[in-house]
Amino acid sequence: MTGPDGFGPFTAPPPPDPRAGCLLVAHPSLRDPNFRGTVVLLLNHSDEGSLGLVLNRPLVSEVGDVLPSWQDHVSEPSSLFQGGPVGLDSAIGLARLPGDDSEPPGLKRISGSLAVVDLDAPPEIVAPAAAGLRVYAGHSGWGPGQLEDELDEGAWLVVDGEPGDGFRPDTDTLWRDVLVRQTTTVALVATYRPDPEVN
């Protein structure tokens, strides 16, 4: 296939390398029930492993059921989200900060405007500095080289995230919406249907 100028083969740009702030979008071939249809925000990625949060798995439980002082400060919906299958008895807070420079008390910036929240800090101090805040029960984790192996197997699509991805009031269509906005052939994955007869 020739490129848009008609002078050479068309080559899709390579996907971004996994890094803090990017998204892992589950490929339809990924059947693991913990991750099927998920969008995972990577919080950390290094030779020692990777850690992330599933963005589109709201739970029935309210934040106030486990962290009452944070209930009035989280973005809608005010439910807990399941960040992954690891450490379900622990919680991680995610915040969106205005600007890209400051790091207010109780917030540790991970990439761009995204920050991890110290949930032991007083919410009255932390929340006013955040433009969005969400609490996740558990997280997603990979050991050294494990995520790279899954990427080689085609289990995940790596795409750039947008600041609002983790704070949408409705996450039901996040998987499809993230794919549709891509400008490469990755966007075609959004047309996948579970029944192969209608693909």
TrEMBL record:
Protein's name in the database:
UPF0301 protein ACFOLH_16775
Give one Pfam family, short name only: DUF179
From which organism does this entry originate?
Aquipuribacter hungaricus
PANTHER family attached to this UniProt entry: UNCHARACTERIZED PROTEIN YQGE, UPF0301 PROTEIN YQGE
Instruction: Determine the domain of life of the protein's source.
Output: Bacteria
Homology family: Belongs to the UPF0301 (AlgH) family.
Under HAMAP family, the record lists:
UPF0301
Q: Where is the signal peptide?
A: none
